[in-house]
Specification:
Length: about 550
């Protein structure tokens, strides 16, 4: 494989953005375990600017090339191959990818360790891919790994209109927590109203002279005594007012200090010295008394911990887009019938033993919860939910209402006619764009979505679904795991059961039994056995092993 001549931006000395130089150099072939990526787009982060100015703790020695994230196309792979030929890591020339780099991304081509690549999502542009990884990883690590965001938490997100801020707001919303965002201008406030759908009391246009009072106003409007989490990338004069408004057990997570950002293209360390000397200071002894914590991180220092980064890379629903929908047939009807049959058999068996009959009670929602066990279980364990891909026939998609998403499935002409009348577009009937069911699918995004979402804008997802169902249109709210956990029907029917976890604070959620027998009590549910908990009992009962032999096996490492 030949060397490649490429162009790259080089920083020959730090302190000024004017010292960036566009240079040509030679890129060798990718080595073992490496992939060569032809760069199509790069992400520009504040860390790049700080590094060029010499203010970033992880700035490499000069000369260096900025750039922490890129998107592009695999051009070549290293020599690591299986005996049959294809690369062990699965990347092939032509694959569209996102790559994390520890600087070096501002170039027309790079060689990168295969472990730092991920596929570019279908439908994403290269620009969208290049702008995703650093911001999303930062927000995810701060909120989930460090702050452990939970349902109903009140979360203050500084710089809410920035890349990390927008990602954080989407994650807060996905967790059914409440966000308060700070921004630096009125234009950014309007952006959050339009894009993040925040109420006026949830947005603070920062005024350093009265910032504390602004936070108090937002908390008062929300009826909250304080913040559970503060996500701070600014520090400076905004640190202490937010820290003082943390509730007991509150967590402040710091990932940047843009207050140290100089004005202009050059760095004057002398001018920054007063800000550095005035930087926030806290007393750990007082923190213990108030039960508040401060955590700080920079993901670049986890570069060698690729196993930690890999698990943060996978959230697949693009912010602002609906969850994908899959057609699975009459799943609710079939699963309800199956559980009903199981219930009848159980009741008959019970009658044989006791001579008593009983009522078998099966609800369709209970059956659906039972066969959708993984989303609430994973959510209770802190893992993200996953959704299937949408179909290509009819109108089958999720649409936005005032408080979330609702799913509509239309595969019959009379249903399309009723929907068209409901949203004020009766002309859809007979429109060539709706000639076939394939045409319905092609018209979902450009035609149906704007009209249906305008109709549902003042309705909750449950209200919109009920109205459509009354018209004979199949519709239902897109319930998150948090919605299920808060649903009164699910609670009344014991369809989500808390199971104690000896290794964590929060119990696991597992689905309950959808078959309710009138003469048989439910529960109780105990903790699942831990690994090795009953090893001794089983060996004694099944193999007749005595205590001396158990000790010998344990000493030899045969059993734990």
């Amino acid at each position: 494989m030949a060397n490649l001549t490429r162009e790259r931006w080089s920083v020959t000395r730090t302190g000024s953005l004017d010292d960036l130089r566009l240079e040509r150099d030679t890129l060798p072939p990718p080595g073992r375990g490496e992939v060569r990526v032809a760069v199509r787009a790069v992400g520009l982060n504040l860390a790049d600017v700080f590094a060029c100015l010499g203010l970033y703790s992880a700035t490499p020695p000069t000369p260096f090339t900025p750039g922490l994230e890129v998107a592009g196309v695999v051009e070549a792979v290293g020599s690591e191959r299986t005996p049959d030929g294809p690369p062990e890591h699965g990347w092939r020339p032509g694959d569209r990818v996102i790559a994390l780099t520890k600087f070096g991304g501002f170039a027309t081509a790079i060689n990168i360790d295969r472990r730092y690549l991920r596929p570019l999502q279908n439908g994403w542009s290269f620009a969208e891919g290049a702008a995703f990884a650093v911001q999303a990883l930062t927000a995810w690590y701060a909120l989930h790994t460090l702050a452990c965001v939970r349902q109903r938490d009140v979360v203050l997100v500084h710089s809410g209109a920035g890349g990390v801020g927008l990602s954080a707001l989407a994650l807060v919303d996905a967790c059914s927590a409440t966000a308060v965002a700070t921004v630096g201008s009125e234009a950014k406030r309007r952006l959050l109203v339009e894009r993040a759908h925040l109420a006026p009391e949830q947005i603070v246009v920062r005024d350093r002279r009265r910032f504390a009072a602004q936070l108090d106003d937002s908390l008062r409007a929300l009826g909250a005594p304080g913040f559970d989490i503060v996500l701070d990338g600014i520090a400076g004069p905004y640190f202490m007012p937010a820290f003082k408004r943390l509730q007991p057990e509150g967590r402040m997570v710091i990932f940047g200090a843009t207050d140290m950002m100089p004005a202009g293209r050059r760095t004057s360390r002398l001018r920054l010295l007063p800000r550095y000397l005035r930087r926030p200071r806290i007393d750990p002894m007082r923190m213990m008394s108030s039960n508040r914590s401060v955590m700080a991180f920079n993901l670049i220092w986890l570069w060698d911990r690729v196993d930690r980064l890999a698990g943060l890379y996978e959230p697949n629903r693009k912010e602002g887009q609906p969850p994908p929908v899959v057609v699975a047939g009459a799943l609710g009807d079939i699963s309800s019938a199956l559980f009903a049959v199981i219930g009848v058999l159980c009741a008959l068996r019970h009658r044989e033993r006791t001579g008593l009959g009983q009522v078998v009670d099966v609800a369709m929602l209970d059956a659906m919860v039972a066969v959708s066990d993984m989303p609430p279980f994973l959510w209770s364990m802190g893992a993200p939910e996953r959704w299937a891909a949408a179909g290509s026939l009819g109108i089958c998609a999720a649409f936005r209402a005032s408080d979330g998403w609702f799913v509509v499935a239309i595969f019959r002409e009379h249903q399309l006619e009723r929907l068209a009348r409901a949203v004020g577009h009766p002309e859809w009937v007979g429109d060539p764009r709706f000639a076939t069911r394939e045409d319905w699918a092609r018209s979902t995004e450009p035609v149906v979505r704007p009209a249906l979402e305008a109709w549902a804008a003042d309705k909750t997802k449950l209200e919109a679904s009920r109205l459509l169902c009354e018209m004979g249109i199949v519709a239902g709210p897109s319930n998150t795991a948090a919605d299920l956990a808060a649903d009164p029907h699910v609670a009344m029917r014991d369809m989500l059961i808390e199971v104690p976890r000896p290794d964590g604070e929060r119990p696991m959620l597992v689905v309950g039994n959808p078959v309710k027998l009138s003469r048989v009590a439910e529960g109780p549910v105990a903790a699942f056995p831990s690994l090795g908990e009953h090893t001794d009992d089983v060996l004694r009962a099944v193999l007749g092993v005595d205590d001396a032999e158990l000790e010998r096996l344990r000493a030899a490492g045969v059993i734990g």
